[in-house]
Specification:
Elements (H helix, E strand, L loop, with lengths): L2 H28 L25 H11 L36 H4 L8 H9 L1 H4 L13 H13 L11
Helix pairs in contact: 2-6, 4-6
GO molecular function, one term: heme binding
Protein name: Cytochrome c domain-containing protein
Keywords: Electron transport, Heme, Iron, Membrane, Metal-binding, Transmembrane, Transmembrane helix, Transport
Length: about 160
């Protein structure tokens, strides 16, 4: 390689860095940083969900489509990218022994996956645990959340036999 080749390589690097910096600067101008403003427990604006009218079959479809890539649902299946969701009903949050949870989810480790907490989590995971590693925006539909929660509740050995309460 002669000096002309080295000059072309250096020029390419300088131009690439300039384009990269320019793109970053433009993105910062166009999409300004805005910290989360809502409280974790700001559930006054959320409608309550009714599990009596929830459709477990629809919840299974939604959960399979939106959660199935990262989570398993059957008893005995290992954790995937996310922990197994079998027997999640009333389970302590961040309690799967072989799974490494984010620090923001570990803050809730003395709480349980109740219907209320599942509803908050499924609505806006980043509002429930601001630094969660789960890359999921949430389910905006109350009906869809109720269906998914009903399905998740059916995946437990803590439920009484069908027809009993």
């Amino acid at each position: 390689m002669d000096s002309f080749d080295w000059n072309r390589i250096a020029a390419a690097c300088v131009i690439s860095c300039g384009i990269l910096f320019g793109s970053w600067l433009i993105s910062k101008i166009m999409i300004p940083y805005s910290p989360l403003t809502s409280s974790v427990y700001a559930s006054e604006n959320q409608e309550t969900i009714d599990l009596k009218t929830a459709d477990i079959g629809k919840g299974k479809i939604i959960a399979s489509q939106q959660c199935g890539v990262c989570h398993s649902f059957r008893q005995g299946e290992p954790d995937k990218i996310g922990p197994s969701l079998f027997n999640i009903k009333n389970k302590k949050i961040a309690s799967s022994p072989n799974f490494n949870y984010s620090s923001s989810l570990k803050i809730h480790e003395n709480e349980y996956w109740t219907v209320e907490n599942l509803n908050k989590w499924l609505a806006k995971p980043l509002a429930f645990a601001p630094a969660t590693l789960m890359a999921y925006g949430g389910l905006s539909s109350n009906k869809d959340r109720a269906d998914v929660i009903a399905y998740l509740n059916s995946l437990t050995d803590n439920n009484p036999p069908s027809g009993q309460k």
